[in-house]
Model the fold of this input.
Amino acid sequence: MNPPAADKLTKRIAYIDWLRGFACLVMFQTHCYDSWLGGSARERGFIKLSQLGGTLPAPLFLFLSGVSFALVTDKLRQKGASANEIARTTILRGGEIFLLGMLFRVQEFLLGQPWAPWTDLLRVDVLNVIGVSLMMMGVACRVAAATGDADLQRLRRITIVTAVICAAAIAVLTPPLWTSWQPRALPWFLESYINGVHTFGKPQPWLFPIFPWAAFAFAGLAVGLLLQSSWARNNQGLALASAGVSGAALVAVGFRLDARPFQVYGSYDFWHTSPNFFLIRVGVVLAILFLSYAWCRWGAGEWGFSPLIEMGKCSLLVYWVHIEFVYGRFSILPKRSVGIRTATYGLLMIFASMTLLAALRNRFPKWKPQVLAFFRGEARA
Done:
């Protein structure tokens, strides 16, 4: 249960928790089938569909981290916190997430011995980029507040414009930074945060560098602040329906641009660096955002016990734990050696156990670390 002072905020963001839990579910199926399927099962269309679904969890997590950031900063502004105080608070929170990401890498390195190379300690994972994105958004909000205008509505609009510009710039610069502008002069562990080269000399699509992943967080910041406006608060259903329609429009624009015979970039990789695919994924996320609201508002999203809401409330913990039981030393099934049916049974076990873990975790609020509260989007007094 949540403290009474947080009841109103918790009710208002229940659909965000549900959406984060949905991202966990999609992540589970992607990881489970990728880790456990073997033989002919890896050559069928089934795993390709599973991996296609796997293009959603990371954008959802990053987008929702931006939305949560917007809730926190807007709440702090309403309480009269100064621009420097807000920047310091949010940048420190980003640093905490980043350090948690580094701690996660240390855990995986130790459990992966004697096979894991030391370079895995510096691999750029999704927690790393979420932490860096939060710090970048903290800086961006401080820059937006440099106007010195105390009007909250105007400051919110300036921050929205700043977030959109940052998201667009990151998306547009991603293709050259992965190819012709690759910053080879940097050490590999620093360049990896730009384009995910790691130790391979060329960008790896399975890593999570700032370009393009941080763009999803800035998109979430812009949308989160839009949803904090007075009109959106008073017309929440209409505001989120508008977000869904805007998402469909972005998807259409992305496919339209991709179909053009002339491309701006010399090297075009739709699935990994294309700004068009970024638009499409942001559009899909906005559509899912509206559907999650509709499901929680008019569907069964909040009827009784909701596994997705439970997991969404502590998605960081769920992410941390499930990895070891899917990819790690304690994998509950042999890796790359089972069929679809057995892997599906394993997926159900992971879903049930992570739901139980989340439910138990959520029943002990006194043990909830502040960083998890921030990751969920709760604002402190």
In short: Residues 1-11, 374-381 have pLDDT under 50 and may be disordered. The two ends are 18 Å apart (CA to CA). Residues 1-54+304-375 form one domain. Residues 83-111 form the longest helix (29 residues).
